[in-house]
Amino acid sequence: MLVLSRVDLAVTAFSLILFSSLYLIKRRSALNALRGPRASSYLLGHEHDLRTKRVDEVLFQWSKEYGTAYKLPGCFGENVLVISDPRAIHRVLQESLQDYPEAADLRRLIKMIFGRGVLWVKGEDHKRHRRVLSPAFSMDHMRQFLPLFQSHVNYLSEKWDNALQGKSQTIDVIPWLHKMTLDIVGESAFNYHFDALEGKPNELTKALYDIEKLGEDSSPTITLAQAIMRYIPESVSSWQGDHFPMSTEKVIKRYLRLSTERAREVLKEAGLYLDHRTVDNGNDGAPAIGTGREKDILSILVRANWVEDPRKRLSEEEILAQMSTLIQAGHHTTGYTLSWILYELAAHPEDQAKVYEEIKQLRERNPEGFTSSEYDSMNHFTLVIKEALRFRPVVPTLEREASKDDVLPLEFPIFCKDGKRIEAVPIGKGQRIKVDISTYNRLQNIWGEDANSWNPKRFEVIDSSTKTKTQVGLFANLLTFSGGPKGCIG
After folding, report:
1. Is the pTM of this model over 0.85?
2. What's the pLDDT score for residue 180?
3. CB of 301 within 8 A of CB of 188?
4. What pLDDT, on the 0 to 100 scale, is given for residue 89?
5. For residue 406, which phi and psi values (nearest 5 degrees)?
6. 416 marked as binding residue
7. Binding of heme: at which residues (predicted)?
8. Are 90 and 479 in contact (CB under 8 A)?
9. On the chain, which terminus has fewer CB atoms closer than 10 Å, C or N?
10. What are residue 177's phi and psi, to 5 degrees?
């Protein structure tokens, strides 16, 4: 047996780091002309700093100094290209989507958490997933959940009233809103009751929260460990994860296993099958759904999958993976967005008063509860929602990697280190790219001179006459839900 001493291990580790560094220096040469912040550490770059600070504020300040495209030092001397320019973003997320997939290490993490669902697949497989998922996320179908949303909001309001009992005290709304959105997603997605607002013990809920706690570890060791995974072949990392999983991987795998088991149990209870066996079918050839199962997303998804060409159907594993995706990604983002809306209304009493007046007028006409069209008629509330989504995006950045050499065009030219003005950025194959959502949503060239301030009324003008030639977002030209074919389906 070969036994390595500590010195041998140290030399081996140093050699690997040196080799990786030389490789990265060669790979990042296309960005040498760009400006950007100096690295606070060669090993950590600015990656660890961004884990411990408000990412949106830090990137916004760098963008003001270096422009809408600049290089950011990453771990082991790597340079990451940060873009907030609309034309560059359009090329990465829409025009040349296939040339800019998620990086291999990020895809491995997505697969581990969510399975082989819509977030993980790419290319033709992604189109197949979206086609089957689309009926469950149509606007008409989503409106049917309005009574469900209202009932949970009313219940949360009652719990807050009981906790306050007429007294003035502080309530941390964020965990409460996360519980409410988890209950809503569970019932609307696959008719599953988490009972999070009730605080009932739930194995799946605990597994979900255990995953979220992993993100709280911002130690340099974790930063480096995740960076090292970028240079390990996927076949090797998958083998390691299957046979010798780390403690964090065990937590992640437990959530995926439990969410898959619960989804399969719900389908069985409803008499729905994923393997296309002969069952009691409806007129369209799809399996019939029992009473009370006509609306939830999983049931609609199964029916839509059945009517697809057999060669284009999702597998059982792929359908069940959508549930873990909806639970984790859906409730978390919605909970934080609701929290920011409440925060901004509290911070701006004039907007709160206008929204309150709109609610009051509707309640006088319809005290039993509002319809979707009545919500749509609340003009100022709609402006507030748009501004909250612009000003407080829950996901501040997206990570992509160039699969070939390319040139990213810029709508807003930048200046290089030598003072040269350029309108395009050449990049090399393998270049990591950080799409800066938060900064794009605050660009003065798009949103006006007060772009870094709260102002819902801006959308009264921008909706009719946008300030940019390039449209990148799915909703109100915001990048909050990403953009292009891989934009947020929900």
Report:
1. yes
2. 96
3. no
4. 97
5. -160, 175
6. no
7. 488
8. no
9. N
10. -70, -35
Indicate the domain borders of the chain. Answer: 6-99+406-486, 134-347
Task: Pull the structure tokens for residue 392.
Answer: 């407080």
Nearest to 179 by CA among 169, 190, 192, 194: 194
Give, for 58, the enclosing helix (H) or strand (E): helix 55-66
Which conformational region is residue 384 in: left (phi greater than 0), alpha (psi within -120 to 50 degrees), or beta? Answer: alpha
Q: What is the pLDDT of residues 314-352, one digit of tens each?
A: 888 888 888 888 888 888 899 999 999 999 999 999 999
Are 327 and 189 in contact, with CB atoms under 8 Å apart?
yes
78 Cβ neighbours under 8 A, 6+ residues apart: 24, 27, 28, 45, 432
> Which pLDDT score is estimated for 473?
82
Rounded to an integer, what distance in angstroms lies between the CA atom of residue 125 and that of residue 131? 10
- Amino acid 104: pLDDT: 85
For the segment 262-297, what is each residue's pLDDT rounded down to a tens digit?
888 887 776 665 554 434 444 445 554 444 455 788
DSSP sequence for 108-149: HHHHHHH-SSTTT--HHHHHHHHHHHGGGG-HHHHHTTHHHH
Distance between CA atoms of residues 62 and 60, nearest Å: 5
Angle at 438 between CA 434 and CA 440, to 5 degrees: 80
| Whole-number pLDDT of residue 286 | 53
Buried b / exposed e along 345-374 (16+ C-beta atoms within 10 A)? beebeebeebbeebeeebeeeeeeebeeee
Q: Please state, in angstroms and as integers, the Cα–Cα distance from residue 95 to each residue in 431, 441, 466, 483, 490, following that order.
A: 18, 20, 20, 11, 22
CATH number assigned to the domain covering 134-347: 1.10.630.10
pLDDT for the residue numbered 46: 93
Task: Answer for the pair 448, 96: CB distance below 8 angstroms, yes or no.
Answer: no
271: which residues sit within 8 A by CB, 6+ positions away? Answer: 279, 280, 287, 288, 289, 290
Counting as low any pLDDT under 50, the low residues of the chain are: 1-4, 7-8, 11, 14-15, 18, 22, 26-28, 276-284, 288-292, 464-465
